[in-house]
Amino acid sequence: MSRPLFQPQLVAAGETVAALNAQFRADVAAFRLQFSCRDCAYFWPSKRACTLGWTVDALCAEPIEILDEKGEPAFCKAFEPAGS
Ligand code: SF4
User: Fold this and answer.
1) Domain range for residue 54?
2) What is the Cα–Cα distance from 3 to 7, expressed in whole angstroms?
3) Residue 2: which pLDDT band, with cuts at 50, 70 and 90?
4) Backbone angles phi, psi at 70, to 5 degrees
5) How many domains, in total, are found in the chain?
6) Which of 73, 76, 80, 84 is surrounded by the most beta carbons within 10 Å?
7) Average pLDDT, stretch 48-72?
8) In this model, does residue 5 exceed pLDDT 80?
9) DSSP symbols for 42-68
10) What is the DSSP string of 17-41?
């Protein structure tokens, strides 16, 4: 399957998915980035589920992997910071 036209190539020549995921984990720690379901107002912790019905596996993965093995990003357009 080819990459959709609207999706940028996030893994440049010479980079690896593992290295980019490691850099993202470092950035999350350094800047306290909030992006996962655990940080979202729609997350239901006791059921480890999204109250909107989306799957949460990718955004709750430990260790954090913002890119999957194909280099495609995991993100949620419905994310709502829990503290807002
Ligand atoms: S809205 Fe998105 S980020 Fe929030 S809990 Fe559901 S799947 Fe996770």
Assistant:
1) 37-84
2) 7
3) low
4) -90, 0
5) 1
6) 76
7) 93
8) no
9) TEEGGGTEETT----TGGG-SS--SB-
10) HHHHHHHHHHHHHHHT---SGGGBT
Say how many Å lie between the CA of residue 84 and the centre of ligand 1. Answer: 15
**What is the whole-number distance in angstroms between the Cα of residue 82 and the centre of ligand 1?**
10
What band does 3 get if pLDDT is binned at 50, 70 and 90? low
Examine residue 8 and state whether it is found in any structural domain, yes or no: no
User: Residue 65 domain-assigned?
Assistant: yes
**Residue to mutate, 34, 40, 55, 84, ligand 1, most ligand atoms under 8 Å from C-beta:** 40
| Residue pointed to by tokens 């996030």 | 10
Give dist(CA 11, CA 71) in Å, integer.
6
Q: What is the pTM of this model?
A: 0.83
Distance 19 CA to ligand 1 centre (A): 25
The answer to whether residue 25 sits within a structural domain is no
